[in-house]
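Hey, I'm writing a tutorial for new members on how sequence and structure tokens pair up, and I'd like a real worked example in the thread rather than a made-up one. If someone can provide the structure for the chain below, I'll link this post from the tutorial.
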Amino acid sequence: MAVEWSPYEWSNMRISSKLATMAVGTLVAAPFLGMGTAFAEDGDVMANLQPVALNGVSASGTAWVEVRGTMINVTMQASGLLADNPHAAHIHFADEARHECPVASEDTDGSGTIDTTEGAPAYGPVVVALTTSGDTSPDSVLAIDRFDTAPGGELTYQRGSIEVAPELASSIAAGESVVVIHGTDYNGSGKYDGKSKSDLDPALPSEATDPALCGTLAAAPAGGAETGLGGTSSESDTGLLALGGGLMLLAAGTGVATARKARARS
């Protein structure tokens, strides 16, 4: 049976001072929201989500992000996650981060697993919380009542027209951000438990907040724009179109561009 936490309990989680200090930097750009698209770049990026090193996850997924000015449309799919438990998911970024997923050497405390703070040098702090509704700022980093619960281990997320700062939009489009899905099950109990405590809140088990899947957002294969998404797309159709386009592109790979060139010459 899955652990249930009330929205009140989740909203009062105490983020560790180290992570909180890093997150402050992501708020600096907030005053620039709404300045228009002059400094933002359009682009399509996608990430292959793979298990985080050492964290015992057998899952995989895909994330697709369309950048349209200062709006982003996000679609995400994953399978093999801990079923029927909330999975926090975020876009991470910092200029000083490596813009990649953590490796085994990130386990600096020798626990045998990588917690969220240990992974921060690789992927940076949270800049967008991929909640299903409401706020998407770093303030919602642990708003678990608004994250996908992966019914049957399958996570399907779609949300359009998320507004971000122009500088952040440009960084995402440039392939300098990382998508992370959290929530592990080290002991195979089917719920978040165990003696190890979360680095974000010692009242929680580490299984609830440790990173599970990670992928660097990089330029999507040619033809990504043909998903037809835009900043004015509704939230309901944005993800469906992006997911369909993204998965087809993953399957087709570079063959898409090759086929087009062949048709153009015929």
